[in-house]
Automatic annotation (TrEMBL):
<dbReference type="Pfam" id="PF13561">
    <property type="entry name" value="adh_short_C2"/>
</dbReference>
<dbReference type="GO" id="GO:0047936">
    <property type="term" value="F:glucose 1-dehydrogenase [NAD(P)+] activity"/>
</dbReference>
<dbReference type="InterPro" id="IPR036291">
    <property type="entry name" value="NAD(P)-bd_dom_sf"/>
</dbReference>
<comment type="similarity">
    <text>Belongs to the short-chain dehydrogenases/reductases (SDR) family.</text>
</comment>
<dbReference type="InterPro" id="IPR002347">
    <property type="entry name" value="SDR_fam"/>
</dbReference>
<protein>
    <submittedName>
        <fullName>Glucose 1-dehydrogenase</fullName>
        <ecNumber>1.1.1.47</ecNumber>
    </submittedName>
</protein>
<dbReference type="InterPro" id="IPR020904">
    <property type="entry name" value="Sc_DH/Rdtase_CS"/>
</dbReference>
<keyword id="KW-0560">Oxidoreductase</keyword>
Amino acid sequence: MGKLDRRVVLVTGAARGQGEQEARLFAAEGARVVVADVLVEQGEALVKELGEEFGADVARFVRLDVGDEGDWAAAVAVAKDAFGKIDGLVNNAGILRFNELVNTPLAEFEQVVRVNMTGAFLGIRAVAPEIEAAGGGTIVNTSSYTGLTGMPLVGAYAATKHAVLGLTKVAAMELAGKGIRVNAVCPGAVDTAMTNPALLDPDADLATSGAALEAYYRKLLPMGRIGRPEEVAALVLFLTCGDSSYITGQPFVVDGGWLAGVSPF
């Protein structure tokens, strides 16, 4: 039996990157997965692939702008219509923008807040009652290494990721009596399109950044390499399944030792 047999989990930002790997792993562990994203073509392709591998009823796609209240209501309706319930949520969707604080336009700051922070809030608010109605379950929020420390040029991002940890702790306290555990993952440098622009456009001038990033992190991180989205997904699985049954309100760092300190070796 899989670790998530009979579970129904909605994963945001699931069309690529960490969310995609979470959806794949969850399906492999027996879950029914709602793949939610604004990237329609990629999301539908993933659902088709999961169906071919695990069965036609294993996944559904729903277009979800996490900053839109109406989209959340629609996503919940799709999940319940397809699978009858929701008992897990992974608030994975997020965006990253690089800028000095004093040069960050208000519109850019608000865009990051809308996706990373408001999106997590709306997800908790929309899905927690459904999880309670299903008899309890889990919420996993995606924070960041920068949610626990500072980092130049990512002020808007870091602010939202600190906020996600606050939401996580408050939600954990408020929802524990309803049978809902709420935790957060804090990834460091992970090899996805969001942190490696070369993956978005291999023909762009940034196409060499993959090797450059790898060399940078080899010097910076104690483990000497950038992380893989599959490694984050494994942690999210742990926090979503029964193996973490006595854990709630906690941040879990998956960063190759980055937060421990810069390695001189």
